[in-house]
Write a structure and sequence with these properties.
2 copies of one chain form a homodimer. The first copy, chain A, has 326 residues and is an alpha/beta fold. The first copy, chain A, folds into 2 domains: 3-118 and 307-313, Nucleotidyltransferase, domain 5 (2-Layer Sandwich), CATH 3.30.420; 129-302, Nucleotidyltransferase, domain 5, CATH 3.30.420.40. In chain A, 38% of the residues lie in helices and 21% in strands. Chain A contains 10 helices and 13 strands. The first copy, chain A, has helices at residues 39-57, 97-105, 114-125, 184-187, 189-201, 208-214, 222-230, 234-258, 267-285, 307-313, and strands spanning 3-9, 13-20, 25-32, 64-71, 74-76, 81-83, 94-95, 109-113, 134-139, 143-149, 152-153, 262-266, 297-300. A 5-stranded mixed sheet of chain A has the order 3-2-1-4-8. In chain A, strand 1 and strand 2 form a beta hairpin. In chain A, helix 3 (114-125) packs across helix 10.
Chain lengths: 326, 326
């Protein structure tokens, strides 16, 4: 059997998996994304994650048919470059990820957009398997979207799927992207944290930052939000309520436009908050759905946190069994 | 040469064209849609429009390879039926349009959704010819959308393209569909007329209804709006401003999701108000566009009022030249 590795290169963590031809995960590894330095440091950390994943799987690095990387920023697989990955340190320009990583590991490297590979993973191996068309919604620091139509990922001119920047409220809240009324302005973890900080400055009481400090975090992570919700923290509840309403409206808009069979909710917050919140998003979607007699199926990402890395591994074609004639 | 006829079955008018294999319009005919009776009366009017179009083209009915009909409601081409065409009189149930019309005219009949055929017409023969992916926006009584991706119409599970019911304002205005905050609640001619009537009841002064009466209309048609805008009527200007803003936001949302190459604006209001208003919609779209360094092309429907009928004719495959060997 040939093996393939996949890496989900995120703003906070680098997740690697090693997978066999059948899509079985043999080993994995996770490490924090460097917060200083530049692309070369990040790629070195990616290489280290792959080596650890390979060790965890108990296989040899040489047995890999290739490494797939799902990356933020503008990804050009043909050129092997990632450009303007603004969540990663010092990555304003273009960097030859495939060349540098391939040389370091001595295996072929393929690149693709992080949200796209996570969507394909759910389509091929996760909650999307029963469907030919689906919308993946990755609810995290931002809100990304991936679209599968008739069994094929739809890229548009390269940047389709920006569901987080669909307008849900004309003249509404300022989004981290600088525009107004985007869904992400209400639902993105980043926007929610910024709002929480403003509210606290204005005197609102909340457990959110206490939980954050207790956990040794500097950000309101998905885990921090989840804990605050469990405690019934009013600010956390109201921020998440707004997020759910905005997600429901944008997803309904996308379904009204595309009429896909299924909506799969993943991402840091989506995975952490799980089915009860996917159900709340579904209920928030229904009142805006035009063909409400035939709503799409709504579910959570079955591959959870590993979806991005698994999807990245799928960039490497499944090899022939070693015993096959050549 | 084989000829084909196409009919755009609208709520106010029935437009027929007769077209040759090359897409050239040989003749046309227009008549008002019956406002009383039921599906049988409407189909009789469609048959009359086809006969008139054939006469206008100076060809024989027998020379037609077929008749395509673009219809509102739920269209099932395989079954030959149109169901729940609520803009047409007495059409709550299902009616065998293809069978009844085909028997009356003794030619094969094909059916499709009215917005879909208008979109395909622009893609094949109109403003969409340079592009492989586009969004058609038909701004009329309601606002319909058609999507071409990679050269193929995207239907979803049958009802894709409902751009008029994308949410542009959470908690916003009531839409004729009953939901809140839909783009059509601001931009649809029907919603604008309802709002104008309420404003007049509340004492707002406007020329809109005077122009309507002078023209012998009972509705604020596209022509009535166009005339009121020329006169600088304040209510007309403010209604159209709101419509342009809502259209810009919903189109930006759709482009953020799909990243199509082009947006083509047609429909009664789109065609009547033309390029200056398409340019205003484009300017309203830009501030909400995520990939604003690479906006889609925005233009008006080149086939104008005839697009729906031409697209319906395209449902009939181009025949072989008569002199071709069989």
């Amino acid at each position: 059997m040939a093996r393939r590795a996949g890496v989900d290169l995120g703003g906070t963590k680098i997740q690697a998996v090693v997978m066999d031809d059948g899509g079985q995960v043999l080993g994995s590894s996770r490490q924090p994304t460097p917060t200083t330095g530049g692309p070369r440091d990040v790629v070195a950390a990616v290489a280290a994650a792959v080596r650890e994943g390979v060790a965890d799987a108990g296989v040899a690095l040489e047995s890999l048919a290739g490494v797939g990387v799902g990356s933020p920023g503008d990804v050009d697989d043909r050129a092997g470059t990632v450009t303007s990955a603004r969540n990663l340190p010092g990555w304003d320009g273009s960097f030859p990820v495939a060349g540098v990583l391939g040389e370091e590991l001595e295996v072929p490297v393929s690149l693709a957009n992080d949200v796209d590979v996570a969507t394909v993973a759910e389509y091929e191996l996760g909650s999307g398997r029963p469907y030919a068309s689906l919308l993946g919604v990755f609810w995290g620091t931002g809100v990304g979207g991936g679209i599968v139509l008739d069994g094929k990922l739809w890229h548009g001119r390269a940047s389709a799927g920006e569901i987080g920047h669909m307008v849900v409220k004309l003249g509404g809240a300022r989004c981290p992207c600088g525009r107004k009324g985007c869904m992400e302005a209400y639902a993105g973890r980043g926007a929610m944290e910024a709002r929480a900080r403003r509210e606290v400055e204005d005197g609102t009481r909340t457990e959110l930052f206490k939980i954050m400090h207790k956990r040794g975090r500097t950000r309101l992570t998905s885990g921090v939000f989840a804990r605050a919700l469990e405690q019934g923290d009013e600010l956390a509840v109201s921020l998440i309520d707004r997020a759910v309403e905005a997600l429901g409206a944008a997803i309904a808009s996308a379904v009204n436009l595309l009429d896909v069979e299924a909506v799969i909710i993943g991402g840091g917050l989506g995975v952490r908050l799980g089915t009860p919140y996917a159900e709340r998003i579904e209920r928030a979607m229904l009142p805006h759905l035009f063909s409400d007699y035939r709503p799409p199926a709504v579910g959570t990402a079955a591959l959870g946190d590993l979806g991005g890395a698994i999807g990245a591994a799928l960039l490497i074609p499944a090899g022939r069994p070693a015993q096959a004639p050549t």
